[in-house]
Specification:
By secondary structure, the protein is mainly beta. The chain has two helices and 32 strands. It folds into three domains: about 20-225, Sandwich (Immunoglobulin-like), CATH 2.60.40.1190; about 245-285 and about 305-495, no CATH class; about 500-545, no CATH class.
Length: about 550
Amino acid sequence: MLRKILFILVFSLSIGGLSAQNIVFKRVEQPIQIDGEIDEAWNLADSAYNWVQYFPFDSSLAVNQSVAKVLFDDKNIYVLGILYSNNQDRKYVTPSLRRDFRGAANDNFTVIFDTFQDRTNAFTFGINPFGVRREGLVANGGTGESSFSLDWDNVWKGEAKQYRGYWVAEMAIPLNSLRFNEGQKEWNINFYRIDSESAERSTWAPISRNFTLFNLAVLRVAQWEEPTKKSGKNLSFIPYISGNSSKNFENKTDAVTGFNAGFDIKYGITPGLNLDLTVNPDFSQVEVDQQVTNLDRFEIFFPERRQFFLENADLFSNYGNRGTRPFFSRRIGVSRDESTGQNIQSPIPFGARISGKANDNLRVGILSMQVSDDQAASLPSYNYSMVSLQQKVFTRSNISAFLVNKQTFQSREKYADSLYNAYDRTFGVDYNLASADNRITGKFFYHQNINEVAKDSAFAMGVELEYNVPKWSLEMRSQSVGTNYAPEVGFVRRTDIRQLAMTYRRSFFPSTGGVQRHGPGFDFDVVGNKTYGFLDWDVNLLYDIN
Protein backbone atom coordinates (compact mmCIF):
# COMPACT_ATOMS: atom_id res chain seq x y z
CA MET A 1 0.00 0.00 0.00
CA LEU A 2 2.82 2.38 0.93
CA ARG A 3 4.63 1.61 -2.32
CA LYS A 4 1.46 2.37 -4.30
CA ILE A 5 1.03 5.73 -2.54
CA LEU A 6 4.66 6.66 -3.15
CA PHE A 7 4.40 5.60 -6.81
CA ILE A 8 1.24 7.68 -7.35
CA LEU A 9 2.82 10.68 -5.59
CA VAL A 10 6.03 10.52 -7.64
CA PHE A 11 4.08 9.95 -10.84
CA SER A 12 1.79 12.92 -10.14
CA LEU A 13 4.74 15.18 -9.35
CA SER A 14 6.49 14.05 -12.55
CA ILE A 15 3.43 14.75 -14.67
CA GLY A 16 2.92 18.09 -12.95
CA GLY A 17 6.54 19.03 -13.54
CA LEU A 18 6.35 18.10 -17.20
CA SER A 19 3.12 19.98 -17.78
CA ALA A 20 4.64 23.07 -16.24
CA GLN A 21 7.50 23.06 -18.78
CA ASN A 22 5.41 24.22 -21.75
CA ILE A 23 2.00 25.61 -22.59
CA VAL A 24 -0.39 25.17 -25.53
CA PHE A 25 -2.34 27.86 -27.39
CA LYS A 26 -5.81 26.32 -27.68
CA ARG A 27 -8.49 27.62 -30.04
CA VAL A 28 -11.80 29.13 -28.99
CA GLU A 29 -14.62 29.68 -31.47
CA GLN A 30 -16.20 32.73 -29.81
CA PRO A 31 -14.34 35.95 -28.89
CA ILE A 32 -13.67 36.31 -25.17
CA GLN A 33 -15.07 39.35 -23.42
CA ILE A 34 -12.22 41.28 -21.80
CA ASP A 35 -13.59 42.33 -18.42
CA GLY A 36 -11.24 40.91 -15.77
CA GLU A 37 -13.61 38.03 -15.01
CA ILE A 38 -12.80 34.34 -15.49
CA ASP A 39 -15.32 33.09 -18.04
CA GLU A 40 -16.10 29.45 -18.74
CA ALA A 41 -13.96 29.49 -21.89
CA TRP A 42 -10.86 29.71 -19.72
CA ASN A 43 -11.60 26.22 -18.36
CA LEU A 44 -10.41 24.89 -21.72
CA ALA A 45 -7.09 26.74 -21.59
CA ASP A 46 -3.71 25.28 -20.77
CA SER A 47 -2.02 26.71 -17.66
CA ALA A 48 1.44 27.95 -16.67
CA TYR A 49 1.85 27.34 -12.95
CA ASN A 50 4.55 26.59 -10.33
CA TRP A 51 6.13 30.03 -10.71
CA VAL A 52 9.57 30.56 -9.19
CA GLN A 53 11.18 33.51 -7.51
CA TYR A 54 13.52 35.79 -9.39
CA PHE A 55 13.92 38.24 -6.50
CA PRO A 56 14.86 38.27 -3.66
CA PHE A 57 15.98 34.65 -4.26
CA ASP A 58 16.04 32.57 -7.44
CA SER A 59 16.17 29.10 -5.90
CA SER A 60 12.63 28.53 -4.62
CA LEU A 61 8.98 28.64 -5.60
CA ALA A 62 7.28 32.03 -5.40
CA VAL A 63 5.58 32.82 -2.09
CA ASN A 64 2.67 34.51 -3.88
CA GLN A 65 1.87 32.09 -6.67
CA SER A 66 0.39 32.94 -10.07
CA VAL A 67 -1.26 31.11 -12.93
CA ALA A 68 -1.27 32.17 -16.60
CA LYS A 69 -3.51 30.82 -19.37
CA VAL A 70 -3.53 31.37 -23.14
CA LEU A 71 -6.13 30.94 -25.89
CA PHE A 72 -6.55 32.19 -29.47
CA ASP A 73 -9.06 32.67 -32.26
CA ASP A 74 -8.78 33.98 -35.81
CA LYS A 75 -8.17 37.56 -34.66
CA ASN A 76 -6.58 37.58 -31.21
CA ILE A 77 -4.37 35.93 -28.66
CA TYR A 78 -6.02 35.87 -25.23
CA VAL A 79 -3.94 35.88 -22.06
CA LEU A 80 -5.24 35.44 -18.52
CA GLY A 81 -3.26 36.00 -15.34
CA ILE A 82 -4.47 35.01 -11.88
CA LEU A 83 -2.19 36.66 -9.31
CA TYR A 84 -2.64 35.33 -5.77
CA SER A 85 -1.66 37.00 -2.49
CA ASN A 86 -1.23 35.47 0.96
CA ASN A 87 -2.73 38.65 2.38
CA GLN A 88 -6.46 38.11 1.89
CA ASP A 89 -7.33 41.72 2.81
CA ARG A 90 -4.67 43.33 0.69
CA LYS A 91 -5.35 46.76 -0.81
CA TYR A 92 -3.39 47.55 -3.96
CA VAL A 93 -1.84 50.93 -4.63
CA THR A 94 -0.06 52.32 -7.67
CA PRO A 95 2.35 55.26 -8.05
CA SER A 96 0.66 56.38 -11.28
CA LEU A 97 -2.18 55.62 -13.67
CA ARG A 98 -0.06 56.64 -16.64
CA ARG A 99 0.29 54.19 -19.50
CA ASP A 100 3.69 52.53 -20.05
CA PHE A 101 4.48 52.46 -16.34
CA ARG A 102 7.84 51.20 -15.20
CA GLY A 103 9.49 50.38 -11.87
CA ALA A 104 9.37 47.83 -9.05
CA ALA A 105 6.74 49.84 -7.14
CA ASN A 106 4.16 48.90 -9.80
CA ASP A 107 2.41 45.55 -9.30
CA ASN A 108 2.09 44.04 -12.74
CA PHE A 109 1.61 40.94 -14.85
CA THR A 110 3.61 40.75 -18.10
CA VAL A 111 3.78 38.28 -20.99
CA ILE A 112 6.73 38.01 -23.42
CA PHE A 113 6.36 36.60 -26.96
CA ASP A 114 9.42 35.57 -28.98
CA THR A 115 7.47 34.85 -32.15
CA PHE A 116 10.41 33.96 -34.40
CA GLN A 117 12.11 31.88 -31.69
CA ASP A 118 15.45 33.57 -32.27
CA ARG A 119 15.84 34.49 -28.57
CA THR A 120 16.98 37.91 -29.75
CA ASN A 121 13.83 40.02 -30.23
CA ALA A 122 10.43 39.87 -28.55
CA PHE A 123 7.15 41.69 -27.81
CA THR A 124 5.92 42.37 -24.26
CA PHE A 125 2.47 43.26 -22.94
CA GLY A 126 1.76 44.10 -19.31
CA ILE A 127 -1.02 45.33 -17.04
CA ASN A 128 -1.36 46.36 -13.39
CA PRO A 129 -4.23 45.70 -10.90
CA PHE A 130 -5.97 48.93 -11.97
CA GLY A 131 -6.03 48.02 -15.67
CA VAL A 132 -3.21 50.37 -16.69
CA ARG A 133 -1.46 48.86 -19.71
CA ARG A 134 1.98 48.91 -21.23
CA GLU A 135 3.57 47.34 -24.30
CA GLY A 136 7.17 47.24 -25.43
CA LEU A 137 9.92 45.64 -27.44
CA VAL A 138 12.91 43.60 -26.31
CA ALA A 139 16.07 43.63 -28.43
CA ASN A 140 19.56 42.13 -28.18
CA GLY A 141 18.30 39.13 -26.24
CA GLY A 142 17.25 41.24 -23.25
CA THR A 143 20.84 41.35 -22.03
CA GLY A 144 20.58 44.76 -20.32
CA GLU A 145 18.12 47.42 -19.21
CA SER A 146 18.68 49.39 -22.43
CA SER A 147 17.41 46.43 -24.49
CA PHE A 148 13.85 46.90 -23.12
CA SER A 149 11.85 49.80 -24.55
CA LEU A 150 8.30 50.94 -23.75
CA ASP A 151 8.26 53.64 -26.44
CA TRP A 152 6.65 51.27 -28.98
CA ASP A 153 2.83 51.58 -29.01
CA ASN A 154 0.12 49.28 -30.31
CA VAL A 155 -3.63 48.78 -30.04
CA TRP A 156 -4.86 45.96 -27.78
CA LYS A 157 -7.36 45.37 -25.00
CA GLY A 158 -6.67 44.69 -21.35
CA GLU A 159 -8.64 44.78 -18.12
CA ALA A 160 -7.89 43.92 -14.49
CA LYS A 161 -10.14 43.24 -11.53
CA GLN A 162 -9.32 42.87 -7.86
CA TYR A 163 -10.78 40.12 -5.69
CA ARG A 164 -10.25 38.95 -2.13
CA GLY A 165 -6.87 37.21 -2.07
CA TYR A 166 -6.06 37.66 -5.77
CA TRP A 167 -6.44 39.86 -8.81
CA VAL A 168 -7.13 38.93 -12.41
CA ALA A 169 -5.49 40.31 -15.57
CA GLU A 170 -7.12 39.66 -18.94
CA MET A 171 -5.72 40.62 -22.34
CA ALA A 172 -6.75 40.41 -26.00
CA ILE A 173 -3.77 41.01 -28.30
CA PRO A 174 -4.55 41.27 -32.05
CA LEU A 175 -2.53 38.81 -34.10
CA ASN A 176 -1.98 41.47 -36.76
CA SER A 177 -0.13 43.63 -34.20
CA LEU A 178 2.60 40.96 -33.96
CA ARG A 179 5.14 39.77 -36.49
CA PHE A 180 5.38 36.00 -37.07
CA ASN A 181 5.58 33.43 -39.85
CA GLU A 182 2.57 31.62 -41.19
CA GLY A 183 2.49 27.91 -40.37
CA GLN A 184 4.47 28.11 -37.13
CA LYS A 185 3.80 25.37 -34.60
CA GLU A 186 5.73 26.92 -31.71
CA TRP A 187 6.64 30.27 -30.15
CA ASN A 188 8.87 31.06 -27.20
CA ILE A 189 7.08 32.57 -24.22
CA ASN A 190 7.45 33.64 -20.61
CA PHE A 191 5.37 35.38 -17.94
CA TYR A 192 6.56 37.43 -15.01
CA ARG A 193 5.01 39.25 -12.09
CA ILE A 194 6.09 42.06 -9.77
CA ASP A 195 4.47 42.03 -6.32
CA SER A 196 5.25 45.28 -4.52
CA GLU A 197 3.88 44.37 -1.07
CA SER A 198 6.20 41.39 -0.61
CA ALA A 199 8.96 42.89 -2.81
CA GLU A 200 8.81 39.63 -4.74
CA ARG A 201 9.40 39.20 -8.44
CA SER A 202 8.50 35.85 -9.93
CA THR A 203 8.58 34.18 -13.35
CA TRP A 204 7.23 31.08 -15.00
CA ALA A 205 10.49 30.12 -16.72
CA PRO A 206 13.28 30.33 -14.09
CA ILE A 207 15.73 33.20 -14.55
CA SER A 208 18.97 33.63 -12.66
CA ARG A 209 18.85 36.93 -10.75
CA ASN A 210 22.08 38.15 -12.34
CA PHE A 211 20.13 38.48 -15.62
CA THR A 212 17.19 40.76 -16.47
CA LEU A 213 13.54 39.78 -15.95
CA PHE A 214 13.04 39.98 -19.72
CA ASN A 215 16.05 37.85 -20.65
CA LEU A 216 15.21 35.85 -23.78
CA ALA A 217 17.74 33.03 -23.38
CA VAL A 218 15.54 31.16 -20.88
CA LEU A 219 12.09 31.35 -22.51
CA ARG A 220 9.98 28.23 -22.62
CA VAL A 221 8.12 26.82 -25.63
CA ALA A 222 4.47 27.52 -26.36
CA GLN A 223 2.90 25.06 -28.80
CA TRP A 224 0.06 25.96 -31.15
CA GLU A 225 -2.93 23.62 -31.36
CA GLU A 226 -3.11 24.66 -35.01
CA PRO A 227 -0.31 26.17 -37.14
CA THR A 228 -0.37 29.96 -37.16
CA LYS A 229 -2.32 31.74 -39.90
CA LYS A 230 -2.58 35.29 -41.12
CA SER A 231 -5.33 37.21 -39.35
CA GLY A 232 -6.14 39.47 -42.29
CA LYS A 233 -4.35 42.47 -43.76
CA ASN A 234 -1.93 44.14 -41.40
CA LEU A 235 -2.63 47.75 -42.38
CA SER A 236 -3.05 50.90 -40.35
CA PHE A 237 -3.65 54.44 -41.63
CA ILE A 238 -3.16 57.42 -39.31
CA PRO A 239 -4.03 60.84 -40.78
CA TYR A 240 -3.77 64.19 -39.03
CA ILE A 241 -4.81 67.82 -39.54
CA SER A 242 -3.44 70.72 -37.50
CA GLY A 243 -3.87 74.46 -37.57
CA ASN A 244 -2.52 77.45 -35.71
CA SER A 245 -2.97 81.19 -35.45
CA SER A 246 -0.84 83.88 -33.81
CA LYS A 247 -1.13 87.65 -33.54
CA ASN A 248 0.96 90.41 -31.99
CA PHE A 249 -1.58 92.72 -30.35
CA GLU A 250 1.01 95.30 -29.25
CA ASN A 251 2.22 95.91 -32.80
CA LYS A 252 -1.31 95.51 -34.18
CA THR A 253 -0.18 93.24 -36.97
CA ASP A 254 -2.42 90.88 -38.87
CA ALA A 255 -2.88 87.36 -37.54
CA VAL A 256 -0.54 84.73 -38.95
CA THR A 257 -2.24 81.42 -39.60
CA GLY A 258 -0.90 78.02 -40.51
CA PHE A 259 -2.33 74.72 -41.69
CA ASN A 260 -0.77 71.30 -41.93
CA ALA A 261 -1.90 67.82 -42.86
CA GLY A 262 -0.26 64.45 -43.40
CA PHE A 263 -0.51 60.76 -42.64
CA ASP A 264 1.35 57.62 -41.62
CA ILE A 265 0.84 54.13 -43.06
CA LYS A 266 2.01 50.85 -41.54
CA TYR A 267 1.64 47.76 -43.73
CA GLY A 268 2.76 44.17 -43.27
CA ILE A 269 4.38 43.19 -46.57
CA THR A 270 5.01 39.67 -45.29
CA PRO A 271 4.45 38.21 -41.81
CA GLY A 272 7.98 39.23 -40.92
CA LEU A 273 8.58 42.38 -43.00
CA ASN A 274 6.90 45.69 -42.24
CA LEU A 275 6.57 48.83 -44.38
CA ASP A 276 6.27 52.25 -42.74
CA LEU A 277 5.36 55.29 -44.85
CA THR A 278 5.05 58.86 -43.65
CA VAL A 279 3.97 61.97 -45.59
CA ASN A 280 4.55 65.36 -43.99
CA PRO A 281 4.77 63.74 -40.52
CA ASP A 282 3.57 65.45 -37.36
CA PHE A 283 5.91 64.69 -34.46
CA SER A 284 4.32 67.19 -32.07
CA GLN A 285 2.44 64.44 -30.20
CA VAL A 286 5.58 62.54 -29.27
CA GLU A 287 6.26 62.19 -25.56
CA VAL A 288 8.69 64.86 -24.36
CA ASP A 289 12.23 64.01 -23.33
CA GLN A 290 13.18 63.71 -19.70
CA GLN A 291 14.75 66.96 -18.50
CA VAL A 292 18.47 66.55 -17.87
CA THR A 293 21.09 68.96 -16.52
CA ASN A 294 24.31 68.53 -18.46
CA LEU A 295 27.32 68.91 -16.16
CA ASP A 296 29.98 67.82 -18.65
CA ARG A 297 31.25 69.17 -21.94
CA PHE A 298 29.70 66.48 -24.15
CA GLU A 299 26.41 66.18 -25.98
CA ILE A 300 23.53 64.39 -24.20
CA PHE A 301 21.98 61.34 -25.82
CA PHE A 302 18.17 61.44 -25.95
CA PRO A 303 16.53 58.22 -27.20
CA GLU A 304 14.23 58.16 -30.21
CA ARG A 305 10.50 58.35 -29.35
CA ARG A 306 8.87 58.87 -32.75
CA GLN A 307 6.74 55.82 -33.62
CA PHE A 308 7.89 55.79 -37.25
CA PHE A 309 11.39 54.78 -36.13
CA LEU A 310 10.65 52.41 -33.23
CA GLU A 311 9.68 48.98 -34.56
CA ASN A 312 12.86 47.01 -35.30
CA ALA A 313 14.80 50.09 -34.17
CA ASP A 314 17.78 47.94 -33.13
CA LEU A 315 18.43 47.17 -36.82
CA PHE A 316 19.33 50.83 -37.32
CA SER A 317 20.36 52.28 -33.98
CA ASN A 318 22.41 49.61 -32.18
CA TYR A 319 25.62 49.80 -34.19
CA GLY A 320 28.72 50.76 -32.23
CA ASN A 321 28.24 51.59 -28.56
CA ARG A 322 26.16 54.11 -26.66
CA GLY A 323 28.68 56.93 -27.01
CA THR A 324 29.72 56.18 -30.60
CA ARG A 325 26.73 55.57 -32.88
CA PRO A 326 27.10 55.80 -36.69
CA PHE A 327 23.34 56.36 -37.10
CA PHE A 328 21.10 58.43 -34.83
CA SER A 329 17.60 58.92 -36.24
CA ARG A 330 17.02 62.15 -34.30
CA ARG A 331 19.49 63.87 -36.63
CA ILE A 332 16.90 63.51 -39.41
CA GLY A 333 14.93 66.72 -39.74
CA VAL A 334 17.25 68.71 -37.49
CA SER A 335 19.94 70.97 -38.99
CA ARG A 336 22.33 73.53 -37.65
CA ASP A 337 22.02 77.16 -38.70
CA GLU A 338 25.67 78.21 -38.88
CA SER A 339 24.75 81.91 -38.84
CA THR A 340 23.18 81.60 -35.37
CA GLY A 341 24.70 78.37 -34.04
CA GLN A 342 21.21 77.04 -33.24
CA ASN A 343 19.50 73.83 -34.28
CA ILE A 344 16.51 74.32 -36.54
CA GLN A 345 13.71 71.98 -37.57
CA SER A 346 13.49 71.16 -41.26
CA PRO A 347 10.25 69.82 -42.80
CA ILE A 348 10.16 66.15 -43.85
CA PRO A 349 7.86 65.79 -46.88
CA PHE A 350 8.25 62.02 -47.23
CA GLY A 351 9.82 58.97 -45.59
CA ALA A 352 9.77 55.20 -46.09
CA ARG A 353 11.09 52.33 -44.05
CA ILE A 354 11.16 48.54 -44.53
CA SER A 355 12.26 46.41 -41.61
CA GLY A 356 11.96 42.93 -40.18
CA LYS A 357 12.66 39.29 -40.96
CA ALA A 358 13.42 38.30 -44.53
CA ASN A 359 13.79 34.66 -43.46
CA ASP A 360 14.55 32.71 -40.28
CA ASN A 361 18.15 33.92 -40.09
CA LEU A 362 18.24 37.25 -41.97
CA ARG A 363 16.83 40.60 -40.82
CA VAL A 364 16.70 43.58 -43.18
CA GLY A 365 16.35 47.31 -42.58
CA ILE A 366 16.01 49.93 -45.35
CA LEU A 367 15.24 53.58 -44.61
CA SER A 368 14.96 56.68 -46.77
CA MET A 369 13.72 60.13 -45.75
CA GLN A 370 13.72 63.39 -47.64
CA VAL A 371 14.27 66.66 -45.77
CA SER A 372 13.33 70.00 -47.36
CA ASP A 373 15.74 72.87 -47.88
CA ASP A 374 15.82 76.03 -45.76
CA GLN A 375 16.59 79.08 -47.83
CA ALA A 376 16.74 81.41 -44.82
CA ALA A 377 19.49 79.30 -43.23
CA SER A 378 21.18 78.52 -46.58
CA LEU A 379 20.64 74.79 -46.10
CA PRO A 380 19.96 72.53 -49.11
CA SER A 381 17.53 69.62 -49.01
CA TYR A 382 19.05 66.29 -48.02
CA ASN A 383 18.13 62.66 -48.43
CA TYR A 384 18.89 60.42 -45.44
CA SER A 385 19.15 56.72 -46.23
CA MET A 386 20.36 53.59 -44.50
CA VAL A 387 20.63 49.91 -45.39
CA SER A 388 21.17 47.36 -42.61
CA LEU A 389 21.57 43.57 -42.85
CA GLN A 390 21.73 41.25 -39.85
CA GLN A 391 22.60 37.57 -40.32
CA LYS A 392 22.09 35.18 -37.41
CA VAL A 393 25.03 32.90 -36.61
CA PHE A 394 25.29 30.14 -34.02
CA THR A 395 22.50 30.07 -31.42
CA ARG A 396 21.93 33.73 -30.53
CA SER A 397 24.75 35.73 -32.15
CA ASN A 398 24.64 37.75 -35.37
CA ILE A 399 26.81 39.62 -37.87
CA SER A 400 25.49 43.01 -39.03
CA ALA A 401 26.58 45.30 -41.85
CA PHE A 402 25.30 48.78 -42.72
CA LEU A 403 25.63 51.82 -44.98
CA VAL A 404 24.39 55.29 -43.98
CA ASN A 405 24.18 57.97 -46.67
CA LYS A 406 23.31 61.67 -46.30
CA GLN A 407 23.30 63.39 -49.68
CA THR A 408 21.97 66.47 -51.43
CA PHE A 409 21.14 66.63 -55.11
CA GLN A 410 20.96 70.42 -55.28
CA SER A 411 23.58 72.52 -57.01
CA ARG A 412 26.46 73.90 -54.99
CA GLU A 413 26.08 77.29 -56.70
CA LYS A 414 22.94 78.14 -54.68
CA TYR A 415 24.65 77.80 -51.29
CA ALA A 416 27.69 79.16 -49.57
CA ASP A 417 30.58 76.70 -49.71
CA SER A 418 30.96 76.76 -45.93
CA LEU A 419 27.42 75.39 -45.46
CA TYR A 420 27.39 72.90 -48.31
CA ASN A 421 28.41 69.25 -48.01
CA ALA A 422 27.31 67.14 -50.95
CA TYR A 423 27.41 63.81 -49.10
CA ASP A 424 28.44 62.09 -45.90
CA ARG A 425 28.63 58.28 -45.70
CA THR A 426 29.39 55.80 -42.98
CA PHE A 427 29.66 52.03 -43.35
CA GLY A 428 30.79 49.21 -41.12
CA VAL A 429 30.38 45.76 -39.59
CA ASP A 430 29.35 44.63 -36.10
CA TYR A 431 29.56 41.16 -34.57
CA ASN A 432 27.13 40.75 -31.68
CA LEU A 433 28.01 37.81 -29.45
CA ALA A 434 25.53 36.08 -27.13
CA SER A 435 26.07 32.56 -25.84
CA ALA A 436 23.14 30.15 -25.57
CA ASP A 437 23.12 30.40 -21.76
CA ASN A 438 23.71 34.18 -21.82
CA ARG A 439 26.83 33.91 -19.66
CA ILE A 440 29.02 35.44 -22.36
CA THR A 441 27.92 38.50 -24.32
CA GLY A 442 29.85 41.06 -26.29
CA LYS A 443 30.41 43.06 -29.43
CA PHE A 444 33.14 43.78 -31.98
CA PHE A 445 32.76 46.64 -34.48
CA TYR A 446 34.61 48.64 -37.12
CA HIS A 447 33.09 51.72 -38.83
CA GLN A 448 34.46 54.11 -41.48
CA ASN A 449 33.26 57.61 -42.34
CA ILE A 450 33.83 59.28 -45.74
CA ASN A 451 32.75 62.55 -47.38
CA GLU A 452 33.89 65.03 -50.04
CA VAL A 453 37.05 65.88 -48.12
CA ALA A 454 39.07 62.69 -47.86
CA LYS A 455 40.53 62.56 -44.35
CA ASP A 456 42.71 60.10 -42.52
CA SER A 457 41.72 58.65 -39.15
CA ALA A 458 37.98 58.74 -39.88
CA PHE A 459 37.19 55.41 -38.22
CA ALA A 460 35.77 53.93 -35.03
CA MET A 461 36.42 50.46 -33.71
CA GLY A 462 35.77 48.71 -30.43
CA VAL A 463 35.25 45.54 -28.46
CA GLU A 464 33.02 44.69 -25.49
CA LEU A 465 33.02 41.41 -23.56
CA GLU A 466 31.07 40.39 -20.48
CA TYR A 467 31.08 37.16 -18.48
CA ASN A 468 28.22 37.00 -16.01
CA VAL A 469 27.37 34.26 -13.51
CA PRO A 470 25.54 34.68 -10.20
CA LYS A 471 28.64 34.84 -7.99
CA TRP A 472 30.81 37.10 -10.12
CA SER A 473 30.91 39.16 -13.29
CA LEU A 474 33.64 40.61 -15.46
CA GLU A 475 33.04 43.31 -18.05
CA MET A 476 35.67 44.76 -20.39
CA ARG A 477 35.24 47.61 -22.89
CA SER A 478 37.72 49.12 -25.30
CA GLN A 479 37.37 51.51 -28.23
CA SER A 480 39.41 53.67 -30.55
CA VAL A 481 37.81 56.68 -32.28
CA GLY A 482 39.75 58.52 -34.96
CA THR A 483 40.37 62.26 -35.00
CA ASN A 484 38.22 62.83 -38.11
CA TYR A 485 35.44 60.33 -37.40
CA ALA A 486 32.38 62.61 -37.57
CA PRO A 487 29.31 60.94 -39.15
CA GLU A 488 26.76 63.69 -39.73
CA VAL A 489 23.87 61.29 -39.10
CA GLY A 490 25.50 59.74 -36.04
CA PHE A 491 26.01 60.44 -32.35
CA VAL A 492 29.68 60.62 -31.32
CA ARG A 493 30.48 62.09 -27.91
CA ARG A 494 34.28 62.13 -28.29
CA THR A 495 36.79 61.76 -31.11
CA ASP A 496 40.55 61.20 -31.12
CA ILE A 497 40.46 58.89 -28.10
CA ARG A 498 41.67 55.47 -27.01
CA GLN A 499 39.59 54.05 -24.18
CA LEU A 500 39.93 50.99 -21.95
CA ALA A 501 37.52 50.16 -19.13
CA MET A 502 36.88 47.13 -16.92
CA THR A 503 34.49 46.27 -14.08
CA TYR A 504 34.83 43.21 -11.84
CA ARG A 505 32.30 42.24 -9.16
CA ARG A 506 32.10 39.36 -6.67
CA SER A 507 28.69 38.67 -5.12
CA PHE A 508 27.59 36.87 -1.96
CA PHE A 509 23.96 35.86 -1.39
CA PRO A 510 22.94 35.49 2.27
CA SER A 511 20.25 32.86 2.88
CA THR A 512 18.52 34.94 5.59
CA GLY A 513 18.10 38.57 6.56
CA GLY A 514 17.23 41.72 4.69
CA VAL A 515 20.39 41.90 2.55
CA GLN A 516 19.77 40.10 -0.75
CA ARG A 517 23.22 40.49 -2.23
CA HIS A 518 26.55 42.09 -1.29
CA GLY A 519 30.12 41.98 -2.45
CA PRO A 520 33.27 43.83 -3.47
CA GLY A 521 34.29 45.10 -6.86
CA PHE A 522 36.95 46.90 -8.81
CA ASP A 523 36.41 49.36 -11.64
CA PHE A 524 38.58 51.53 -13.88
CA ASP A 525 38.11 53.66 -16.99
CA VAL A 526 41.07 55.23 -18.82
CA VAL A 527 40.86 57.62 -21.81
CA GLY A 528 43.78 59.04 -23.75
CA ASN A 529 45.26 59.84 -27.15
CA LYS A 530 48.65 60.04 -28.83
CA THR A 531 48.95 63.81 -28.52
CA TYR A 532 48.33 64.34 -24.81
CA GLY A 533 48.58 60.87 -23.27
CA PHE A 534 46.06 60.45 -20.43
CA LEU A 535 42.96 62.65 -20.80
CA ASP A 536 40.70 61.16 -18.12
CA TRP A 537 41.06 58.29 -15.71
CA ASP A 538 38.83 56.89 -13.03
CA VAL A 539 39.61 54.04 -10.62
CA ASN A 540 37.21 52.77 -7.96
CA LEU A 541 37.09 50.19 -5.22
CA LEU A 542 33.46 49.14 -4.80
CA TYR A 543 31.27 47.38 -2.29
CA ASP A 544 27.66 46.81 -3.32
CA ILE A 545 24.86 46.08 -0.86
CA ASN A 546 21.39 45.32 -2.16
